[in-house]
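Q&A log
Question type: sequence-to-structure
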Amino acid sequence: MRTIKMSLVLSALFVFGLTANAQDSKFMLGAGVDYATEIQNLGIHLKGLYQINDVWEADAGYTYYFKKNYTNWSSLDFNGHYVFSCNDKGCFYALAGLNVTFYKVKFDNVVSDYEVDYSDEYTDYYDSMLSLATDMEAKGSDVGLNIGLGGRMGLTDNLFLTGEVKYTLGGANYLNIGAGILYAF
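Response status: OK
Response body:
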C-alpha cells in the first residue's frame, strides 16, 4: 500500500513537472553548436542554466571542438547573466564569467605519413625515430574571462532557441559564436 501511494505521489510530481509553465521553471538544459575564431573550428556544447530571479541567471557549459591538425580543444564555462529584458517571446542578456580552455596535441604516426628511404646505415635508428614520433603528445589548459551578449527566443512554452556571442580573454583569446536549444524543466 505504501509503495502504491509513493508511486502515485512520484507520478503526480513527474506530470506536474512536465506540464509546468516555462515562466515557473528555474532550470534549463540544452545543447548546440559553437564556432571559435582562434581555434578555427566547430564544436558542440552542453549547457545548464539556473534562473536565480528576474534579473540574474547562472549557467555552466562544456564545449568540445572537433579534432583539427592533431589538436583537440574543449572549454568549460561558468557565466553569470544580467537580464536586460525578458518576456514570453524571449530574453536578452549580458554575460560575464570564468572560462577554462583545454588543449591536447597528439601526433599519430607522423613518420609513417612520409615515405622516407633510409639507407642501410640508418636502419637501426628508424625504429627509435618511429616510436618517438608516434608517442609525441602535449596537453594543458588556459584560464580566462568571458564577456558577451546572448538571447533566447521561445519556440514553445518549454523550448527555447538560444544564441550567444562571447569573447574569452586570457591565455587562450578567442571569439565564440554559438547557437542552440534549451529545454525548461
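Response note: The longest strand covers residues 137-154.
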